[in-house]
Amino acid sequence: MSKGDKKLELLAGVPLFANLRGRDMERLGQLTEEVDVPAGKVLTREGERGEEFFVIVDGKVRIERAGATVVTRGPGEYIGEIALLDEGPRTATAICETSCRLVILGHREFHTLLAEQPEIERTVLRTLAHRVRRLEPDSAG
Q1: Pairing of strands 93-96, 78-79
Q2: For the sheet containing 61-65, what is the strand order?
Q3: Which of 108, 111, 99 is CA-nearest to residue 35?
Q4: Phi, psi dihedrals of residue 127, rounded to the nearest 5°
Q5: Are 96 and 38 a contacting pair, CB within 8 Å?
Q6: Burial of 121 (0-12, 13-18, 19+ CB in 10 A)
Q7: Fewest C-beta atoms under 10 Å: which of 14, 27, 88, 110?
Q8: Cα separation of 56 and 65, whole Å?
Q9: What is the 3-state secondary structure (H, E, C) of 6-46?
Q10: C-alpha pair distances (Å), 65 with each of 21, 45, 77, 92
Q11: Domain ranges of the chain
Q12: Is 68 helix (H, G, I), strand (E, B) or coil?
């Protein structure tokens, strides 16, 4: 499997992108950057504005809320999908526990893609609506 295929496989594992296919997924992959980050690096800070989304290729990232560890995430898991949508305040702090290799997608790049290819935006919105509907079993919508 090539490096590009691995990146697309990781992106396809993110529920927000799971319904993207073929060229749409390839275009999304082109907008990402793969980086190496040292242990101890703070990726996000709770309450600060978020602009990036991270998929963990290798390593472990600790997620904290109010200074307490909530969970540790590893390869194939992701952080910051809400920031892709609204650039609002981060809901948690994320710190690399080990050196990490990450795939990063920025808010600006993501929204440029949505503007260029409205069918991707529709797919992402349908996926998001489906996820919200599953979280809200009592909703009338």
Answers
A1: unpaired
A2: 42-44, 93-96, 61-65, 68-73
A3: 99
A4: -60, -45
A5: yes
A6: middle
A7: 88
A8: 19
A9: HHHHHHHCCHHHCCCCHHHHHHHHHCCEEEEECCCCEEECC
A10: 35, 9, 18, 5
A11: 3-132
A12: strand
- Stated length of the chain: 141
CA 85-58-45 angle, to 5 degrees, is 45
- Map tokens 């919200």 to a residue: 132
Question: How far is Cα 114 from Cα 8, in angstroms, rounded to an integer?
Answer: 18
Q: Quote the CATH superfamily of domain 3-132.
A: Jelly Rolls (2.60.120.10)
Joined together, the tokens standing for residue 81 give 């999908």
Alpha helices in the chain (DSSP H): 3-12, 22-30, 81-86, 107-116, 118-135
- pTM equals 0.84
Strand partners, 63: 71, 94
